[in-house]
Amino acid sequence: MSKPLRFMFVHPVDYKSLVETGFPHLGLGQLSASIKKRIPGVQTLIVRGHLQEWIHDWQPDIVGITAVSQYWDEAKFHAQRSKQGGLPVIVGGVHVTALPETMTEDMDVAVLTEGEQTIVDLVRLFQAEGEFRPASLRSIPGIAFRENGQLVKTAPRPMIPNLDLLPHIDRTILAHSYHTGMFTSRGCPYSCLFCASTRYWPKMRFNSATYVAEEICRLHSEGVTQITFLDDLFVADKRRLVEIHDLLGHKGLLGKLSYICNVRSNLVTNDLCRLLHDMNVKVVGIGMESANPTTLAYLKGEGDITVEDHAKAFQRLTDQGIIVHPSFIIGSPQETREQIMDTYRFIKEHRIPDFEVYVLMPFPGTPVWDYAAQRGLVGSDMKWERLRYMVTDFGPQSIVLSERLDYRELADLYRMFTNLRVKGRRVGMVKQAIKHPMRAVGYVVKVVQGNETLPEPYPPRR
User: What's the rounded Cα separation, in Å, for the pair 173 and 186?
Assistant: First the structure.
C-alpha cells in the first residue's frame, strides 16, 4: 500500500502581531477540507516556520505557500527552501493573484483568486503525473505558471456560485481555544480605495443562515464561547442576519456565545443595534478611516458615507452596550495636517478610548497601488517588507503617499494619535477598553500526524 499524499501549507506571518497570529488561517483550513472531501486519504498540515525541519520530519509531497504582499519576500524564501528539498511548490493568495509576474522560478504554479476547486485539480494532476508539466497545467483554469521563462495565465475560473457547497472548514489542523474565527461571506458591496477585497471577489456572496448556524452549533459543541466573524461586512445582508439570529434562538444558543463583527457606519440603525445586542455581539469594528469629509470621500467613495454617520453609529452602538473599535487612516495623497487633525478632534470629542490608526499603504490589487505605481513608488521588483513598516519605523525606506506631508510629519501625527489612545485608557474613559475581548485572542497551530501532535513551528527560523 502506497503512502498517502502529504500536502504541507506554509503561512509566513509576523509573530509579534496579534492581528496576524490571533486566528488560524481559515482559508487554508477551507482548502484542506476541500482536498480531503474530494481526494480521501490526503494528509495536510500548516506550518509557519522551521521549514527545513518540517520537510525532513514530515516528508511532504507538495508544498503550498500563501502570503500577502508584505510577506512575499518570505514566500520566495520558503519556495527556494522547498525547491532545494526537491518539492513542487504551489503559491496562492491575494498578492500573486494581483501580481502573478512576481512568481519566481522556484514556484511551479500559482492559484489565482479562490482556490478550493483549483487545488483539488492540481493535487489530482500531481497524483497522476508526479509533477507539474506546463502542457498539463494548461488544461486547469484559474492558474499561472512559467513556460520557457514566459508567464502563462490560463482561462479564469468562475467564482463558486454557492458557498454552501463548500465543506465546513477543516479545524483538525487549526487549534482554537474558547475564541475562534469564522467566515460567512466573501467580498464586500463597497469599493474602498485602499482595499483589494472587491477586486479579488468582484461579487459578494454569502453562506446561508442555515450553514452559518450549523457551524456555530458545531463550534459551541467543541467548547467555543466567542466567535469573531472575519467577513469584510458581516451585516451586509440584514435579512440573513435576522435569520441567523432566529436559528440560533431555535437551537437554544442565544446568549451561549458572544460575537465580534465588522459593521459600516451608514448601515448602523437603531434596529440593527438592537439585533446585534440580542445576538450577544460584544464588539464591532468600524473602518471609519477619517473624520474629514474630503478625505473620507476619497477613501470610501463620494456620497457613500458621512462623518455624521460615524457619530450616529458610535452613539447608537454605545447606547446598546456594544464596544466600538474604529480604525482610521492618515496620509492620503492630498490630505493636509489640518484635515488629519479633524480625525484627532473627532476621537477626542466622542471620547473613543480604543481605536487603531494606520498610514495609508499601497497594496497590490487596489487603486492606491495603481496611484503609487504611477508615481514610481512601488513596482513588482520592490522589497515587499516596505509594505509592513509601521509609522514608528518610518524613514527613507518607507512608502509615503502624501504629497503634502513628509514621513517625519506623519510620524509625529501618528504619535499624537497613539498618545491620545494611551491617555484615554489611563484616565478610564471606558473601563471596558481594558477588558476588550479582542485582546485575549490567541491560538496555536495544531499539527497532527496520525495521533501524534507535533511541536508548533515557532518562531520562524531561517
Answer: 22
* Nearest CA among 420, 388, 407, 415 for reference residue 331: 407
Instruction: Quick: pLDDT tens for 409-445.
Output: 998 999 999 899 887 666 544 444 444 444 444 333 3
- Cβ within 8 Å of residue 21, ≥6 positions away: 13, 14, 15, 442, 443
User: pLDDT confidence of 21, banded at 50, 70, 90?
Assistant: low
How are beta strands 109-111 and 143-147 bridged, if at all? antiparallel
Instruction: Locate CATH 3.40.50.10350 in the chain.
Output: 6-160+443-454
**Beta carbons of 172 and 214 less than 8 angstroms apart:** no
Q: Which residue bears the cell 504619535?
A: 415
Residue range 177-440, CATH number: 3.80.30.20
Nearest Cα residue to 445 out of 227, 163, 259, 175: 175
- Distance (Å, rounded) from C-alpha 448 to C-alpha 423? 45
pLDDT level of residue 259 (50, 70, 90 thresholds):
very high
* Per-residue cell: 211: 450553514
> Rounded to an integer, what distance in angstroms lies between the CA atom of residue 265 and that of residue 414?
23
What's the pLDDT at 370? 96
Q: What's the CA gap between 286 and 290, in Å, rounded?
A: 11
The residue type found at 5 is L
Contact present, 83 and 60 (Cβ < 8 Å) = no
pTM of the model: 0.89
- Is residue 357 within 8 Å of 315, Cβ to Cβ? no
> Are the CB atoms for 109 and 144 separated by under 8 Å?
yes
**CATH 3.80.30.20 location in the chain:** 177-440
Residue 182 to residues 117, 265, 287: CA-CA distances in angstroms? Answer: 20, 22, 19
Euclidean distance between the first and final Cα of the chain, in Å? 36
d(CA 451, CA 292): 56
Coil, strand or helix: which one is 185? strand
| 415-440 residues labelled b (16+ CB within 10 A) or e (exposed) | eebeebbeebeeeeebeebeebbbee
Express each pLDDT in 362-419 by its tens digit.
999 999 999 999 999 999 999 998 987 665 565 667 899 999 999 889 989 999 998 9
Task: Report in angstroms the alpha-carbon separations of 288 from 96, 157, 232, 311, 355.
Answer: 29, 34, 14, 10, 10
Query: Cα Rg for the chain, rounded, in angstroms?
Result: 23
Q: According to the CATH classification, is domain 6-160+443-454 in 3.40.50.10350?
A: yes
Cβ contacts of 259 within 8 Å, gap of 6 or more? 226, 227, 228, 229, 279, 280, 281, 282
